[in-house]
Write a structure and sequence with these properties.
Blueprint (H helix, E strand, L loop, with lengths): L1 E3 L9 E2 L7 E2 H5 L13 E2 L5 E3 L2 E2 H8 L3 E5 H18 L4 E6 L6 H9 L3 E4 L2 H9 L7 E3 L6 H10 L2 E4 L2 H11 L7 E5 L28 H9 L4 E6 L10 H21 L5 E3 L17 H18 L6 E4 L3 H4 L3 E13 L3 E6 L8 H5 L5 E3 L9 E6 L8 E8 L7 E5 L19 E6 L2 E6 L4 H4 L12
Parallel strand pairs: 7-22, 8-9, 8-15, 9-10, 10-11, 11-12, 12-13, 13-14, 14-15, 17-19
Antiparallel strand pairs: 1-23, 2-3, 4-5, 5-6, 7-16, 16-17, 16-21, 18-21, 19-20, 22-23
Helix pairs in contact: 3-10, 8-9, 9-10
The protein binds ligand LLP.
Length: about 475
């Protein structure tokens, strides 16, 4: 469904913050685009409402209901271009950016990033199917995961995807599957580089005690196996974690990986051409977050890889990376309708919204922080400190603790920023809530990209055995 909405006059962005009494256009504009809390097209329109992609957010909620994920196409395309342009500028060899679709896998998102020339990193048959149906070439689909099933591996090979092999069991399974293939299956190896970074322990992956990838002490045995196998191993991969602000760990990857590249060629005659250094660049969720820009990150990893390969006298590899959050995180907001409130004297006021941990499980899982505004009163003064509670039967279902907002009333629209990554993709039906809808907005038009689930949808997979029927 596509709806044309009239585009009101552009005015100054004025967005409220919880840290400082007011964060306004001037302070936001001075930040580089990828460090924005807001989608690039966000502005306050002449009705004092938040507008994104030329669409009035309050009108969007009226049309599509809430909770509603609102994806700003311009922001997503811009982030893709920033990655591409930065590699063109800072890396002399070939490069390929893959979108880590675990951040948000759906047809429209894969189609947009695919049309920007990005490939896709997938971690399940479902994500492979989504990328393929979105029109992404299988030659640009890389399949990850630490326990891929036989069925998934078969599907990936038949589809022509590259498999990023995680462990011995998978390697041997692929070797036996290779015998049935007409051409040698294209694979890469995931190795644990032993690089630690500062992020939530659940999303660290590069340290030695990780469930992902081959341990460095297995490398000789793996290379020896590959040198006699029917698999076409094109290179190696490492991913060290997510929501990382430091540049040093990503700078160091090249130095670790080049040794393995060298070993593979010199001792085992394996001709590697691709090096995938994973994703992980963090984004700004709150004002105190200070991630490097996409360009700084690309410049750093490019220099790290280039220096390491030149020092070893090796040709530059095709450099792959697979960002998720830094591509899509800031491009989307979630709009909720405010319901009731509860004031606990001298302690806090809870304001409840019509979603919560089912559409955004990150606060309860990682204690993640978010910013929000009341989209129908953008310039109202911030007169109260409140806690935004979700509607789930769980005390921990708190979306934002202690945020400054204007006085709110039931029916007001609360918009939470930075919900593009790991929100829809980690959404659940907890408490049997239907999953929220998503729209993409661009140039004053909104288009549905994920339909809202209905109550009937919730029963779609249920079976009631005859003997249990009342
Ligand atoms: N490549 C691999 C192999 C990964 O495991 C991941 C993320 C990425 C790339 C993309 O990382 P990014 O650029 O998005 O940081 N649910 C957590 C994040 C889990 C990340 C899992 N792997 C969260 O909500 O913070």
């Amino acid at each position: 469904m596509t709806t044309a909405l009239s585009k009101p006059k552009q005015e100054t962005v004025s967005v409220n913050s919880t840290n400082s009494p007011q964060i306004n256009a001037a302070s936001l504009d001075s930040l580089s685009p990828n460090q924005q809390l807001l989608p690039l097209t966000a502005l306050v329109n002449s009705h004092d409402r938040l507008e994104i992609g030329g669409c009035d957010v309050v009108d969007l909620v009226q049309q599509y209901g809430s909770p509603l994920y609102i994806l700003d196409e311009v922001s997503l395309r811009t982030a893709c271009q920033q990655y591409r342009d930065a590699f063109a500028k800072h890396y002399q060899g070939q490069s390929q950016v893959l979108y880590a679709s675990k951040a948000w896998s759906c047809l429209a998102v894969c189609a947009i990033v695919g049309s920007e020339g990005l490939g896709i990193d997938v971690v399940s048959a479902g994500e492979i199917l989504t990328a393929l149906r979105a029109g992404v070439s299988p030659s640009l689909i890389y399949f990850h995961g630490n326990n891929k099933s036989l069925e998934e591996l078969t599907y990936a090979l038949e589809s022509g995807c590259t498999v990023v092999v995680d462990n011995w069991h998978e390697l041997k399974t692929l070797e036996s599957l290779a015998l049935e293939q007409t051409s040698k299956p294209r694979i890469m190896l995931r190795l644990t580089p032993g690089i630690e970074c500062h992020t939530h322990e659940y999303i660290q992956t590069g340290h030695i005690d990780s469930k992902f990838g081959f341990d460095p002490n297995e490398i000789d045995a793996v290379f020896a196996f590959l040198s006699k196998s029917s698999l076409n191993c094109v290179g190696i991969h490492a991913h060290i974690g997510s929501q990382i602000f430091e540049l040093q760990p990503h700078q160091d990857i090249g130095g670790v990986m080049v040794q393995w590249f060298k070993l593979a060629g010199e001792k085992y005659g394996l001709k590697f051409s691709e090096l995938n250094i994973g994703g992980g660049l963090g984004i700004r969720y709150v004002e105190s977050d200070d991630p490097p820009s996409i360009e700084e990150w690309v410049k750093t990893v490019s220099a790290g890889v280039t220096d390491a390969f030149v020092a070893e006298g090796l040709a530059l590899p095709k450099l792959l990376c697979e960002p998720g959050r830094s591509l899509i995180g800031s491009t989307c907001v979630t709009a909720y309708t405010i319901g009731g409130s509860k004031t606990v004297p001298d302690i806090r006021t809870y304001i409840t919204v019509d979603g919560g941990m089912s559409d955004n499980p990150r606060p309860i899982t990682y204690q993640s922080k978010y910013r929000a505004v009341v989209a129908n009163h953008m310039s109202a003064s911030l007169s109260q400190t409140v806690t935004i509670a979700g509607k789930h039967c769980e005390s921990g279902d708190i979306l934002i603790k202690d945020i400054q907002l204007p006085v709110t009333n039931p029916g007001d629209i609360l918009v939470v920023f930075g919900t593009g990554a790991y929100n829809y993709s980690m959404a659940s039906n907890y408490n049997r809530l239907p999953k929220a809808a998503a729209v993409v907005v661009e140039g004053g038009e909104s288009s549905l990209i994920v339909k809202r689930e209905t109550r009937e949808d919730l029963l779609r997979q249920d079976c009631l055995p005859e003997r249990l029927r009342q």
